[in-house]
Amino acid sequence: MGTAEDPALRAAMVRALAASVEVHGATSPNPPVGCVLLDAAGEVVGIGATRPPGGPHAEVVALRAAGERARGGTAVVTLEPCAHQGRTPPCTDALLAAGVVRVVHAVADPTPQAAGGAEVLRAAGVDVVGRIEEQRVARGPLRAWLHRTRTGSPHVTWKFAASLDGRVAAADGTSRWISSAESRGEVHRMRRTVDAIVVGRGTVLADDPQLTARAEDGTPLDRQPLRVVVGFGEIPANARVRDGTAPTLHLRTRDPRDVLAALAERDAVDVLIEGGPRLAGAFLAAGCVHRVLAYLAPTLLGAGPAALADAGVTTITEAMRLRVEEATMSGPDLRISAVPVGGEPAGGPGAGARSGTEEPVGER
């Protein structure tokens, strides 16, 4: 059946990763897992991905597709199979009952109550191999869930679009459109996968964003994030964030840790910061940004607001160093994904005192 270095196993893991991409967002707060079943001859006989909460896990979906052909075969899974009884029975039980003789997984399960699946399988005589394509999988749809599981706090991505000289708008305040149609389409698809989008009240007043996930023709996609407005003062009654397309929450605070604590209480796993330079600066200064996603357009403005305001840096030695994970093109734009050097900041809920109030706006 090949070794851990077998290209066929790695190819199967890539297919399992692709299956997890398809359900990214739909499983929250559970992890989006993908699974590929190979029969005894190494042929793909089943592909599955985790269903929404309460539904079967990826292994069970793939086993159902494979049927009897799973017996004597290999399960290739992006996350170590769970060994506990939750809303659904342990995946280890399903794999053993199906007669799977080998399990290959990418990432170990860090959840205390669910971990240990590999040892359960080994004790039953199953050959278990871990850490196959681990880094690639950990940067994929599991990224936010792994962070939330390890820290107790949502994973935060700061996303911005800017000109090549770092401006998010022209000197007169106009900003449509700095980024390309391709980049905007990517962002809408990303919005569909996250649990919450956070902006400051100033952005609502200045730009009146709708903050929804939309198709190219403007119609809402099938999954919408919670829209979160941060700051004191009222939100205008006619603001588009009040339009009922998606739920909206007004948090009357400016403390990033209070914001994350409130979202953690709502089981948010993946959070997108789309606010202006001051909100981004506050989250960065608080150590509450775990990934930066920049769309840089091949445009020069020369003046206008910068992408980032005060982030607590006063001298070059205090600069926030990032490690670039990926740099690729999005239409004519350059898309850069980077993470803080030295690992992600914890930024866990409860690290700061709770303050202010929270107000649902048109939640249904």
Strand content: 15-25%
Supply the helix-strand structural class.
Answer: alpha/beta
Question: If you compute it from the alpha carbons, what radius of gyration comes out, rounded to the nearest whole angstrom?
Answer: 22 Å
Counted by DSSP, the helix tally is 10
Shape: elongated
The topology string of helices and strands comes to: HEEHEHEHEHHEHEHEEHEHEEEE
Question: Which architecture name of the largest domain does CATH use?
Answer: 3-Layer(aba) Sandwich
The CATH superfamily label of the largest domain reads Dihydrofolate Reductase, subunit A
Largest β sheet strand count, sense and barrel closure: 9 strands, mixed
Q: What is the CA-CA span between the terminal residues?
A: 52 Å
Helix content: 25-40%
Q: Extract low-pLDDT stretches.
A: 344-355
CATH topology of the largest domain: Dihydrofolate Reductase, subunit A
Strand order of the largest sheet: 12-13-11-6-10-7-8-9-14
Give an overview of the whole structure.
The protein has helices at 7-22, 58-66, 91-97, 117-123, 134-138, 143-151, 181-193, 201-207, 256-265, 277-285; strands spanning 34-38, 44-49, 74-79, 102-107, 127-129, 155-163, 196-200, 226-230, 248-252, 270-273, 291-297, 322-330, 333-340, 357-361. The chain is of the alpha/beta class. The chain folds into two domains: 7-141, Cytidine Deaminase, domain 2, CATH 3.40.140.10; 153-361, 3-Layer(aba) Sandwich (Dihydrofolate Reductase, subunit A). A nine-stranded mixed β-sheet has the order 12-13-11-6-10-7-8-9-14, with helices on both faces. It starts with 6 loop residues before the first helix and ends with a strand. Mean pLDDT is 90; it is low at 344-355.
